[in-house]
Write a structure and sequence with these properties.
Layout: H1 2-16, H2 23-36, H3 39-48, H4 54-57, H5 60-64, H6 93-96, H7 103-113, H8 121-137, E1 155-157, E2 165-167, H9 168-181, H10 186-202, H11 209-212, H12 223-240, H13 256-288
Helix pairs in contact: 1-9, 2-8, 2-10, 2-13, 3-13, 7-8, 7-12, 8-13, 9-13, 10-13, 12-13
Bound molecules: 2-acetamido-2-deoxy-beta-D-glucopyranose (2 copies) and zinc ion.
């Protein structure tokens, strides 16, 4: 069972590369958010997406960035914290958000644009699709870290044998969430999201959820996305690389490392979904109040 799963993940990894929470992770965030969207947000989102569901568009930005038209958005999926892992983790917008932009300003930008009635329908649709995707990306710790290209250059193993060679970023994007959820399909994401929602409502996340949205104002530009990026970045020092790069380089992360990392990956997906639901409620309310 375990071996088969590991092989399947290795295969999907080589086919797709590592860009952000995999499609399963982004769909999970969208399904969680859908659970927290009120009637006004559902109406607004359905209108802007022309009837499509948040989950069905959650990974669009990862395809778009590799097209000629979407190349400008490649730098919007992350922020390159130039901190000193594992001694000190921190985000400094001046230092870390490059000329090509970053996820913090991208969220601020598209939150504004989706509300602008003087943009074209396609521009507003793209803005919403970016929001749905980036509120997921910004909770992935390695999307808030510059070291070794966000861990892409840190070679690790996922399972035994030569076929299991991968990198740390990919482990966090796909292997950890997909092992937790039990697969990579949309149906798996929907089921995984249901279990996470249950934990937000009455389980392990019940007492934390308010702190996840302690900054939730859509009118403060980059302020809240910056708080979220700093939160995700803090886990780079405590969970992703607590003992530095040498401690993980070339080692198999599918056992003890996974046991420690998995609860944090799950919690980060939960945060992304919960925040996205609240964020869309605020956007819909703002649009309706004009
Ligand atoms: C805001 O969005 C527009 C349209 O996609 C893009 O051209 C611009 O570079 C974005 N600005 C920032 C700061 O992300
Ligand atoms: C759209 O309206 C905003 C103000 O809401 C303004 O700043 C912006 O320049 C306008 N854009 C276009 C393309 O007209
Ligand atoms: Zn992404």
């Amino acid at each position: 069972m375990k071996t088969a799963a590991v092989l399947a993940f290795s295969a999907s990894l080589f086919a797709q590369g590592a860009y952000s929470w995999g499609a399963m992770g982004h769909a999970t965030v969208a399904y969680i958010a859908s659970n927290y969207m009120n009637g006004a947000a559902k109406t607004f989102v359905s209108h802007i997406l022309d009837g499509a569901t948040p989950a069905s568009v959650a990974s669009w930005a990862d395809t778009y960035r590799y097209t000629a038209a979407g190349r400008f958005s490649a730098g919007f999926h992350y922020i390159d914290a130039h901190d000193t892992v594992p001694h000190s983790c921190n985000i400094d917008l001046e230092r870390d958000c490059g000329a090509e932009g970053c996820v913090v300003y991208a969220i601020a930008n598209y939150t504004e644009r989706v509300q602008m009635t003087n943009l074209t329908a396609i521009e507003r649709t793209d803005a919403l699709k970016f929001i749905i995707h980036f509120l997921g990306d910004i909770t992935q710790p390695l999307h808030t870290e510059n070291l070794d290209v966000g861990g892409n250059d840190i070679t690790v193993q996922w399972g035994e044998g030569s076929k299991s060679k991968t990198n740390l970023h990919a482990i966090w994007d796909r292997q950890i969430p997909e092992t937790l959820a039990g697969g990579s399909t949309d149906a798996v994401a929907e089921k995984f999201a249901k279990a996470i929602v249950k934990d937000i409502e009455s389980g392990i996340y019940k007492d934390q959820k308010d702190s996840w949205v302690s900054c939730d104002s859509i009118t403060k530009g980059a302020a809240c996305p910056k708080v979220w990026a700093a939160d995700a970045n803090s886990f780079v020092c405590t969970v992703v690389l607590p003992n530095g790069v040498d401690a993980v380089q070339g080692t198999d992360l599918s056992t003890e490392y996974y046991e420690k990392a998995a609860p944090i990956a799950r919690q980060q997906l939960a945060k992304g979904g919960y925040r996205l639901g609240m964020w869309l409620n605020s956007i819909a309310a703002a649009v309706n109040s004009r």
